[in-house]
Design brief:
Blueprint: E1 20-23, H1 48-59, E2 63-65, H2 76-88, E3 92-93, E4 96-101, H3 108-128, E5 132-137, H4 147-163, E6 167-171, H5 180-190, E7 195-198, H6 210-220, E8 227-230, E9 233-235, E10 241-243, H7 246-255, E11 261-264, H8 273-288
Helix pairs in contact: 3-4, 4-5, 5-6, 7-8
Length: about 290
């Protein structure tokens, strides 16, 4: 059997500017990739290498966490080239965004297929030198989340990650199956140091209940390892703009002892992603310094 690393080992930067990261999601209209449904052909396209260079040129950000769906290809040759070129550009991967997996489906075969699919993405993270993958919890219509089944499946996935020193991050996003308190329950039940939380500062605010969002973040940050998403506002399901108190969220992160990256994730329905990201960078550096 392979000796497990008891906890993930990773050297975190301490300078505020070195803790900034950029996710490709707000730039989905530009990202070239066969699986990217958000591509807008009226806008110029960029691949992951160009995205990494753009992050440095426009925002002085040298850490990227693109979505795997925004990759033009995931074949071995392309991944090797990508790793080299991103490194040569002076950038690095700090997380990879994965789609949804059905980890609490009643059918064991469905759960197993989700785990195997995500294992392949962990192998990609190894090639690219990314310390983690963000795993979305996909759901089946009309099915309530099941903590025990999710913890069992994701615990198995985290065991696979542990053998390769790759962390599995769970983000609060979908208001039903990615509720912050549900995620914390799954993580605590699985009890695996390679299954961690990815607190998104704004997603849960879509419930139009700021207190719920902040208490959810207080529950998640102690379980976070290397990644958190920065938003200063979101648009709720009813179309109202819900503001995020960044001073408060950064103080929650600090109080929990979080040492990882803060990735800019501008809400594109509120305007241009380039201007919006610039604004988030300024705010984040203010709260980190």
């Amino acid at each position: 059997s392979i000796a497990m690393a008891p906890t993930p080992h990773y050297q975190f930067p301490t300078r505020p500017v070195d803790r900034l990261a950029l996710t490709s999601y707000p730039f989905r209209a530009y990202m070239e990739g066969p699986e990217n449904s958000g591509r807008d052909r009226s806008k110029p396209g960029m691949d992951v290498i160009q995205f990494a260079k753009m992050a440095i040129q426009k925002f002085n950000i040298r850490n990227i966490n693109p979505l795997l769906a925004h990759f033009p290809s995931t074949d071995a040759e392309y991944l090797q080239k990508l790793r080299k070129e991103v490194k040569n550009a002076g950038s690095r991967f700090v997380d990879l965004g994965l789609g949804g997996g059905k980890f609490y489906d009643p059918d064991p075969a469905v759960r197993k297929a989700s785990v195997q699919s995500s294992q392949r993405s962990i192998d990609i993270a190894v090639v690219l030198g990314s310390p983690s993958v963000r795993q979305h919890l996909g759901s089946t219509q009309g099915l309530q989340p099941d903590v025990d089944r999710a913890a069992e499946s994701l615990g198995g996935l985290a065991d696979y990650g542990a053998r390769k020193n790759i962390v599995i991050n769970l983000e609060n996003d979908n208001l039903l199956n990615e509720d912050p308190f549900l995620i914390v329950k799954i993580i605590e039940k699985a009890n695996n140091p390679y299954l961690r939380a990815l607190p998104d500062m704004g997603n849960t605010t879509r419930k139009s209940d700021p207190d719920y969002n902040y208490s959810g973040l207080e529950a998640m940050y102690p379980h976070a390892f290397n990644m958190s998403h920065v938003k200063d506002a979101v648009v709720s399901s009813t179309g109202t703009v819900e503001k995020v108190d960044l001073a408060k969220t950064f103080s929650i992160a600090r109080a929990s002892g979080y040492r990882g990256y803060f990735s800019m994730e501008w809400e594109t329905r509120l305007g241009d992603p380039f201007e919006g990201t610039q604004k988030l960078v300024r705010e984040t550096l203010r709260y980190l310094s």
